[in-house]
Amino acid sequence: MVAKKRTGWPRLAWGTVATVLLASVAACEVPPVAPDGGSPATVAPVVPVAEARKLLGELPVAVRGVLDGYDRDKFPHWKTVSGSCNVREEVLKRDGVEVKIDGQCAPVSGSWRSPYDGETWRKATDVDVDHVVPLAHAWVSGAKSWDQARREQFANDLTRPQLLAVTDNLNQEKGDKAPDAWKPPLVSFWCTYATDWIVVKAGYGLTITVPERAALSSMLDRCR
């Protein structure tokens, strides 16, 4: 793969805590993706480290399942949000700076700072929209038993910190790995990454393994 020229940019800020969303996370309720024609939530919640540790301690521990029967098509993604804009394009608009789109909602200019490595890209083709908790990982953590509507909701969730615009090579490197097998190279992002992972898993009632829990707990030690 051809190496890309990279430039730095200031650290991404997620925004303020959404109290009502935290309550739904604690109750393991899944708020719906904004309906077609509506405005999606564009700011993911940030939970304090104490809340993240509490949620981590409540996650069910289980041996990771197997991928038998898994297919990405069982997680229909990039649902239309408004007009010709789908979820992926909404994330690119949300996470970019001075993003301009064409008549089909495809980004034609702008810049994107990848929180995984702190690099800035000026072509939308250089970034992927990553599922923080990968679809295949969700399958082996409990999503195998969901109906397709719930899996579609998970794959298009704009209300939780589940979707991020990141350096494409890193998204491919991450694959379906959990934090015990892969972490963002930008160590200063570990706190946010662990918190995001925990919030998503708690919100959907997904399981964790013992090594995964240990890795997440260690990453939360980076929180300040």
Write up this protein.
Helices cover 33% and strands 15% of the residues. The model is unreliable at 1-45 (pLDDT under 50). The longest helix has 15 residues, at 190-204. The protein is globular, with a radius of gyration of 17 Å. A four-stranded antiparallel sheet has the order 1-6-5-4, covered by helices on one side. It contains eight helices and eight strands. By secondary structure, the protein is an alpha+beta fold.
Considering the chains and any ligands shown, give keywords for the structure.
15% strand, alpha+beta, 8 helices, 8 strands, 4-stranded antiparallel sheet, single chain, 224 residues, two-stranded antiparallel sheet
Give the arrangement of secondary structure elements.
Elements (H helix, E strand, L loop, with lengths): L6 E2 L10 H8 L22 H10 L21 E3 L2 E2 H9 E6 L5 E7 L5 E3 L5 E5 L3 H6 L7 H8 L7 E5 H7 L15 H15 L5 H11 L4
Antiparallel strand pairs: 1-6, 2-3, 4-5, 5-6, 7-8
Quick gist of this model?
With 224 residues, this protein is of the alpha+beta class. It has eight helices and eight strands. The protein is globular and about 45 Å long.
Give the averaged pLDDT, no decimals. Answer: 84
Count of beta strands: 8
Overall body shape: globular
Q: Roughly how many Å apart are the termini? A: 36 Å
Main pleated sheet: 4 strands, antiparallel
What proportion of the residues is helical, as a percent range?
Answer: 25-40%
